[in-house]
């Protein structure tokens, strides 16, 4: 039936989710094959990637990567500096820590959230300390067209997400786990909804 609508909201309403959705949080551990794309939760609503590592004296390498410079993301260490890069259809958003990694066991992280309806923020952390921040216009895509490359831990394959490394660019330290946390849907406050409905009459 005409006219055919091409609005974003109409297309979002028509999306059919997977039979077994990935959920909100995941823990990935090295040693296996690439993690299937559908097993990685959607990142558009915000995320926190936390990585448990043991950094050597001169750390370098990919901690995790999915996709390539056309569409994808990677957390890596180059020249001793933790860097997160995300490609939105070839537009690379990159944030690098302002201080080098210290050697030894530690947690590093990258966080994404929105500060306004049209701006996103990437933050890289050493433990709980913010060491880099990037604010940018627009949002993170719901999905990445990456040809089924999967999420890889401790190395990358194929085309890189950033020109600052060349795959496989293996992580030269210890890596025990990658934790991905996403906020998931907001839980409704039924008392507030009932109060608002009663006041609306």
Structure, described:
This protein is mainly beta. It has one domain (25-185): Jelly Rolls (Sandwich). Helices cover 8% and strands 41% of the residues. The chain has 2 helices and 11 strands; from the N terminus they run αβββββββββββα. The strands form 2 sheets. A 6-stranded antiparallel beta sheet has the order 1-11-2-7-8-9, with no helix packed on it. Strands 6-5-4-3-10 form a 5-stranded antiparallel beta sheet, with no helix packed on it. Strand 8 (119-126) and strand 9 (129-137) form a beta hairpin. The longest helix has 11 residues, at 190-200. The protein is globular, with a radius of gyration of 19 Å. The relative contact order is 0.25. The model has no long low-confidence stretch (mean pLDDT 86).
Helix content: under 10%
Sequence of secondary-structure elements: HEEEEEEEEEEEH
The poorly predicted ranges are: none
Q: Which sequence of strands runs across the widest sheet?
A: 1-11-2-7-8-9
Q: Summarize the main sheet.
A: 6 strands, antiparallel
How confident is the prediction overall: mean pLDDT? 86
Query: What portion of residues belong to β-strands?
Result: 35-45%
- The CATH architecture designation is Sandwich
- The SS-based structural class is mainly beta
Given the C-alpha coordinates, what overall shape results?
globular
Radius of gyration: 19 Å
